[in-house]
């Protein structure tokens, strides 16, 4: 792990812990005077643990960056690689959106075929079974074995 | 000793339904293990939804069989592809691949299988003999002891399962925090539900487990496709010299027994995991060998050392699980979730409340080991063929089953969105080395931790001097502080050396 990555991730973790301690827990955890242990005690302890640990990671990385003279921000990033890393996540996000409208059993073959093509598969004798057999298995599992109907 | 329960357990383990369930688990595990990039925890996470409609015994045995099968199967790709099916089989590559390349792939695979099965069976027997007395002692523990032991286990896992204690603790804290969402168990008041009724039960374990383990792993695998695409598997030829003989096997017996011992010890400690066991065993086998230079060049002892330890870790990791209800690794943590889904509290109470189930699981584990031997021995060529399945075909299918796991449980779009969210979280944790193991273990044990902490606070009534009368709890609190200091020092020293 680079010091820059440690610095930024530590900062994100610390900021989230602060946000949770200052807003989420006070407004959402609730309180009960009758309870032996307040409902916000464990989430609060957990976030203090995260806050302290995140702060140590951030400060340690910052100290090392200052010693080495590393700038906290760089534009010298492998953008094509970042794009390549992000597209599967985006594609699964698109699938989730589609599945809010269509059932997986009906949309599954298309989703699988498109995903396989995007990952570089072009052979029809691979595409056909790989996009239909998993869906048939799902159908058999949901309708005949689990009896929850078509999902 | 409850002989009626033991007799009943053996009878149940030998039924046809049991054989189908365990055999199915071992077979799926073997296939998953053979495919590089799919780990046993990924397989367990995806398979948990399939067990909803099985009996508790079949469900747990299926998952344990799956875990065992994947540990043995990962050696196949390590030996034939030089790409371990799981990180824990990386040590197997060192001697497995050179041996396969030298024209003895079948012998290398048979050696790996036998070492796996022997390590597995011996560690399972050790588990049976140690877990029951362990659980009997643990039944005397109260909430103070349990809360202290859980805190100790979390610190230990945070420090040892990742590169940095602090990143591990941050991940653990996040896991605890997210596990407290939903109704407060004592008052029944909504806690961090943000007004959503779907959040009353908190985040579904299935979405958290599949997201952080399986789906995130597929994103990582998809990322690797940019640089690595083709796989070149060593073919198994029909050579009469390419088989394991007694002459080959005899010198490795001592190494297998040593590996089993190391794997059992490492597995019983929370947080270390099978990779540590396999590498330790490999290193010790090399040191103990009369010809250490032959290691890394196709010495069967190298395969035997790594595989016996790798497989011995799985049953050994169940010692703290059955004895104390504490998971030592992700697979064991997922088993807690599977037990909970079937309404069973795992830990010492299992011995008291459902001894038949516990004995049945033990018997099922032995059956799983024997099925693993038969499947691995006779299915060798078929599993070798699976290593040729390219990763770009595996990734979309696994992602499809990840999504199906959520839909089959009826969580709908809400569950899918959570799944995506947790997969992104898991992806970032893996990319930036924030221990997802600690995160998931913390998420799963938080209800138990909260219950015991709450009971301790109520019983103490604000007077913490009661701890002085609870030496075990006090000892574990002291151990926790010592572990915290030592692991923090180790992390800072490592970071200092790296800088």
What does this protein structure show overall?
- The complex is a heterodimer of chains A (151) and B (499).
- In chain A, helix 1 (3-28) runs antiparallel to helix 2 (41-68) and helix 3 (79-99) packs antiparallel against helix 4 (104-118).
- Chain A is an all-alpha fold and 151 residues long.
- Chain A has helices at residues 3-28, 41-68, 79-99, 104-118, 124-145.
- Chain A has two domains: 1-76; 79-151, no CATH class.
- Chain B is mostly helical.
- In chain B, 73% of the residues lie in helices and 1% in strands.
- Chain B has a two-stranded antiparallel ribbon.
- In chain B, a hairpin with a 6-residue loop joins strand 1 and strand 2 (190-191).
- In chain B, helix 5 (90-101) runs antiparallel to helix 6 and helix 9 (205-224) crosses helix 20 (412-431).
- The longest helix of chain B has 34 residues, at 105-138.
- Chain B is globular.
- The N and C termini of chain B lie far apart (57 Å).
- At the A-B interface, helix 1, helix 2, helix 3, helix 4 and helix 5 of A face helix 8, strand 2, helix 9, helix 19 and helix 20 of B.
- Chain A: The chain crosses the membrane at residues 7-25, 45-62, 82-104, 124-146.
- Chain A: It comes from Roseinatronobacter monicus.
- Chain A: Keywords: Membrane, Transmembrane, Transmembrane helix.
Pick out its properties.
heterodimer; A: 151 residues; mainly alpha; 2 domains; 5 helices; B: 499 residues; transmembrane (chain A); Tripartite tricarboxylate transporter TctB family protein (chain A); membrane (chain A); transmembrane helix (chain A)
Compute the gyration radius of chain B: what is it?
Answer: 22 Å
| Principal-axes shape call of chain A | flat
Quote the average pLDDT of chain B: 87
Count of individual domains of chain A:
2
Count of DSSP E strands of chain A? 0
Point out poorly predicted stretches of chain A. none
Class of secondary structure makeup of chain A? mainly alpha
Assign the structural class of chain B, choosing from mainly alpha, mainly beta, alpha/beta, alpha+beta, or little secondary structure.
Answer: mainly alpha
Please trace the helix and strand order of chain B, writing H or E for each element: HHHHHHHHEEHHHHHHHHHHHHHH
Instruction: Note the quaternary state here.
Output: heterodimer
Low-confidence stretches of chain B: none
> What's the total count of β strands of chain B?
2
Strand content of chain B: under 5%
Radius of gyration of chain A: 24 Å
- Beta-strand share of residues of chain A: under 5%
Query: Strands across the major sheet of chain B, in which order?
Result: 1-2
């Amino acid at each position: 792990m680079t010091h820059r990555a440690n610095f930024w991730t530590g900062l994100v973790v610390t900021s989230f812990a602060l946000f949770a301690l200052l807003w989420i827990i006070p407004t959402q955890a609730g309180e009960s005077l009758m309870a032996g242990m307040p409902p916000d005690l464990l989430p609060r302890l957990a976030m203090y643990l995260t806050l302290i640990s995140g702060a140590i990671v951030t400060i340690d990385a910052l100290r090392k960056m200052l010693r080495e003279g590393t700038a906290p921000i760089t534009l010298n990033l492998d953008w094509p690689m970042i794009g390549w890393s992000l597209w599967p996540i985006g594609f699964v996000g698109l699938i989730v959106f589609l599945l809010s409208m269509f059932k997986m059993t009906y949309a599954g073959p298309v989703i699988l075929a498109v995903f396989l093509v995007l990952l570089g598969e072009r052979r029809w004798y691979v595409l056909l079974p790989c996009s239909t057999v998993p869906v048939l298995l799902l159908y058999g599992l949901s309708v005949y074995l689990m009896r929850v109907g078509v999902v | 000793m409850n002989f009626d329960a033991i007799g009943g357990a053996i009878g149940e383990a030998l039924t046809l339904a049991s054989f189908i369930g365990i055999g199915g688990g071992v077979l799926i595990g073997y296939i998953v293990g053979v495919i590089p990039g799919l780990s046993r925890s990924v397989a367990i996470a995806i398979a948990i939804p399939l067990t909803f409609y099985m009996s508790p015994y079949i469900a747990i045995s299926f998952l344990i069989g799956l875990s065992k099968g994947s540990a043995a199967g990962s050696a196949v790709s390590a030996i034939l592809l030089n790409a371990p099916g799981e990180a824990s089989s990386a040590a197997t590559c060192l001697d497995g691949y050179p041996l396969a390349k030298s024209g003895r792939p079948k012998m290398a695979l048979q050696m790996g299988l036998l070492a796996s099965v022997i390590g597995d069976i011996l560690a399972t027997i050790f588990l049976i003999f140690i877990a029951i007395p362990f659980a009997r002692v643990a039944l005397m523990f109260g909430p103070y002891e349990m809360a202290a032991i859980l805190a100790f286990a979390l610190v230990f896992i945070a420090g040892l399962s990742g590169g940095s204690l602090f990143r591990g603790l941050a991940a653990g804290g996040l896991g605890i925090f997210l596990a407290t969402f939903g109704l407060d168990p004592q008052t029944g008041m909504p806690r961090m539900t943000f007004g959503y009724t779907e959040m009353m039960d908190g985040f579904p374990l299935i979405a958290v487990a599949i997201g952080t383990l399986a789906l995130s792993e597929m994103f990582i695998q998809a990322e690797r496709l940019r640089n690595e695409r083709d796989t070149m598997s060593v073919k198994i030829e029909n050579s009469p010299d390419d088989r394991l003989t007694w002459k080959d096997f005899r010198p490795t017996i001592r190494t297998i027994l040593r590996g089993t011992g190391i794997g059992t010890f490492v597995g019983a400690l929370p947080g270390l995991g099978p990779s540590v066991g396999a590498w330790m065993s490999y290193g010790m086998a090399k040191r103990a060998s009369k010809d250490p230079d032959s290691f890394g060049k196709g010495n069967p002892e190298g395969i035997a050392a790594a595989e016996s330890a790798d497989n011995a870790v799985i049953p050994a990791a169940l010692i703290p699980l059955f004895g104390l209800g504490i998971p030592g690794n992700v697979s064991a943590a997922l088993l807690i979730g599977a037990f909970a889904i079937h309404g069973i509290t795992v830990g010492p109470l299992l011995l008291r409340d459902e001894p038949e189930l516990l004995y049945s699981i033990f018997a099922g584990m032995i059956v799983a080991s024997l099925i693993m031997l038969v499947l691995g021995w006779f299915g060798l060529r078929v599993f070798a063929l699976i290593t040729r399945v390219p990763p770009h075909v595996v990734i979309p299918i696994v992602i499809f089953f990840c999504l199906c796991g959520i839909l089959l449980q009826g969580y709908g779009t809400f569950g899918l969105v959570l799944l995506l969210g947790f997969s992104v979280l898991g992806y970032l944790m893996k990319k930036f080395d924030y221990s997802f193991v600690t995160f998931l273990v913390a998420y799963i044990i938080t209800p138990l931790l909260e219950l015991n902490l709450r009971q301790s606070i109520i019983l103490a009534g604000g007077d913490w001097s009661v701890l002085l009368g609870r030496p075990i709890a006090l000892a574990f609190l002291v151990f926790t502080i010592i572990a915290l200091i030592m692991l923090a020092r180790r992390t800072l020293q490592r970071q200092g050396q790296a800088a």
